[in-house]
Design goal:
Number of helices: 8
Strand order of the largest sheet: 3-2-1-4-5-6-7
Shape: globular
Number of domains: 1
Structural class: alpha/beta
Helix content: 40-55%
Number of strands: 7
CATH architecture: 3-Layer(aba) Sandwich
Radius of gyration: 18 Å
Length: 267
């Protein structure tokens, strides 16, 4: 059975690692004694810049996490150059598709928020099972437990990410593979920099910093927890949703009306 994950001496990969939550996690893992942290990003220059700033134990790697062949090739390359991957943080994400969204936005959200995790597992599960150890971290969102009123593609695919992580946690535990699912609410990153007062993410209250998320991740991994909630109140919100879904939907409809009025200046 998988248990707590200990960072010192390990090899860790963080996709979407050049900025925001990914970079904060990479920095925290290095502070906690990781032997090697691969800062992975689609943008090669940003990956190099972030890794350079993080120090000699940080190594840049440019690839598309939603390209299965690229993921498989990258896993093989990392294990050849840096040794077995102990922790893979499948963290890349996009904010795409206002309202119901278009087909291209659904496709992008699905590939980044769901298939990227599938491709990582396909490349890593056999290797980790053979060693009898390893850990997979899926970055979803509190939207995956609740909903995001601004974007159907974002909300639905983040729900799918939570469901996939749960499936993984059930299926792979006896192989010695741990699984965690990260579900933050609002975080101050480039992705949320344009959020105005009428953004649905504001319903969760004040935004926190990426370093706060990284702290929550570090603690949860050390305790072997599946669900990582940097905003603890998300658990209470989810409980209300489960206990009386009709009441919860009614409350969310009122919240949406309030947001729309805020955006138009109506009271």
């Amino acid at each position: 059975m998988a248990g707590p994950f200990s960072v010192p001496g390990t090899t860790i990969v963080v996709t979407g690692g050049a900025r925001g939550i990914g970079r904060a996690m990479a920095e925290r893992f290095l502070q906690d004694g990781a032997a090697c942290v691969v800062v992975a990003d689609r943008d090669a220059e940003e990956a190099r810049s972030a890794a350079s700033a993080l120090g000699e134990r940080a190594h840049p790697m440019a690839f598309d996490a939603a390209d299965e062949a690229a993921v498989a090739d990258t896993v093989a390359r990392i294990e050849e150059e840096h040794g077995p991957i102990d922790l893979w943080c499948s963290n890349a994400g996009v904010a795409s598709g206002a309202d119901l969204g278009g087909d291209a936005e659904w496709d992008l959200s699905w590939r980044i928020h769901v298939l990227a995790h599938v491709y990582a597992v396909r490349a890593l599960a056999g290797r980790m099972a053979e060693r009898g150890r390893g850990h997979l971290l899926v970055t979803s969102s509190a939207a995956g437990l609740l909903t995001n009123l601004d974007s159907a593609p974002y909300s639905a695919t983040k729900h799918a990410a939570v469901a996939l992580a749960e499936w993984m946690a059930i299926r792979y535990a006896d192989d010695g593979i741990g699984v965690s699912c990260l579900c933050p609410q609002g975080v101050n990153t480039d992705m949320t920099a344009g959020d105005g007062p009428d953004s649905a993410t504001r319903l969760g209250g004040d935004y926190i910093e990426p370093e706060d998320v990284a702290e929550s991740v570090a603690v949860a991994l050390s305790e072997g927890r599946f669900l990582i909630l940097p905003h603890p109140e998300a658990a209470a919100y989810e409980l209300r949703r489960v206990e009386d879904r009709d009441r919860w939907i009614g409350g969310m409809r009122r919240a949406w009306a309030k947001l729309r009025n805020a955006g138009t200046g109506r009271s």
